[in-house]
Amino acid sequence: MKLIYKLIGVFLLAFLVTACSPDKNSTPDKVAEKFITNFYQGNGNEIKEQLYDMGENEIKLIQLMADKAKEFTQQHKGLDKVEINETVFLPDSETLASVQLKLEFKDGFLKKESVPVIKVDDKWFIKLR
Description:
Elements: H1 2-20, H2 28-41, H3 44-50, H4 56-75, E1 79-89, E2 96-105, E3 110-120, E4 123-126
Antiparallel strand pairs: 1-2, 2-3, 3-4
Helix pairs in contact: 2-3, 2-4
């Protein structure tokens, strides 16, 4: 019986450790890549969840900009791939960075983007202001 309690205790401890650890998918690079992909596809709901400290009017403006970016993407036959070139942290900061990306469209058009990010409570967000 003691063995069963020990096993249950080990499983509970393992569960708590993994549940409370920071999100491994929340890195500046991954957040910026996901944001820019959703932005150029016009996915407003996805974009909205990634933004940090934005008012409702600003979110609407971002959605309008994403709609224009989607049209741009369609003119270039779609977004082929997004590459992360570099992540530059602000001096003396581990929570503010800028992610440099290269976008390649299906018609061969290339575009560079820079996405500002911020880390809040072990999670990365897009910081547009």
